[in-house]
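Lab notebook, design round three. We kept the backbone fixed and only want residue identities now. Task for the bench partner: fill in a sequence for the structure below.
Input structure tokens:
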């Protein structure tokens, strides 16, 4: 596989060129430089392809994420820069990795403690979930993009009372096309099923929780919807 990983501060995996295989993004030790290496695997034959320095100037950006924001089949990069949530839309091809200049998706992000991105309304595009600085309030904003035209629609406070919950995750638990929210509260593991529509974000009261979670250090979920 690839060499030179000793100075990587974090990885950012995404299918940037849209060939169906996740490529390797890696930030340098000072988080200022982003390197991208192509996934050149074929079924049964894992390989890394060519790669190298893609861009610099990332040290002011935190909470970087990869998602296909506009639904064009190529994973894009999102990240916070000060108070703003930025999007870099992938314009990569099989020949080269490239991204459009950044676009500001929203302001008011300085107090976000963490993001929980999921397609809660099932329209095929990930929506922005965000927790407040004290982790007690949860905000959701709708992704209104069309392929090639990224945009962010209306949003606002969805619910409070999250401070007592941890290990918050999203996946389409029941396979109905809408991402649900999973979390732990003390010894219990909860699933809040999304009942959102194109007009409103909503979640059903949790199904009876399963117990025995107090000693879990981390969960490893494979998101079925992506
Ligand atoms: Ca790829
Ligand atoms: Ca995209
Ligand atoms: Ca959505
Ligand atoms: Ca669901």
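Proposed sequence:
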């Amino acid at each position: 596989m690839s060499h030179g990983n000793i100075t990587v501060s974090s990885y950012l995996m995404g299918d940037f060129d849209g060939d169906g295989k996740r490529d390797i993004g890696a930030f340098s030790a000072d988080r200022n430089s982003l390197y991208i290496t192509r996934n050149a695997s074929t079924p049964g034959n894992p390989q890394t392809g060519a790669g190298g320095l893609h861009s610099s100037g990332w040290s002011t950006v935190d909470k970087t994420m990869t998602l296909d924001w506009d639904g064009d089949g190529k994973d894009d990069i999102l990240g916070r820069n000060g108070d703003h949530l930025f999007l870099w839309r992938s314009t990569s091809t099989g020949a080269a990795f490239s991204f459009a200049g950044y676009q500001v998706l929203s302001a008011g992000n300085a107090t976000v403690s963490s993001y929980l991105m999921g397609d809660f309304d099932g329209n095929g595009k990930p929506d922005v979930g965000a927790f407040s600085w004290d982790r007690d309030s949860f905000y959701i904003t709708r992704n209104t993009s069309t392929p090639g035209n990224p945009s962010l629609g209306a949003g606002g406070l969805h619910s409070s009372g999250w401070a007592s919950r941890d290990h918050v995750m999203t996946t389409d638990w029941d396979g109905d096309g809408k991402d649900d929210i999973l979390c732990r509260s003390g010894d219990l593991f909860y699933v809040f099923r999304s009942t959102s529509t194109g007009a409103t974000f909503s979640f059903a009261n949790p199904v009876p929780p399963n117990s025995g979670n107090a000693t879990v250090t981390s969960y490893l979920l494979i998101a079925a919807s992506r």
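Keep this in mind before ordering anything: The chain has no helices and 15 strands.
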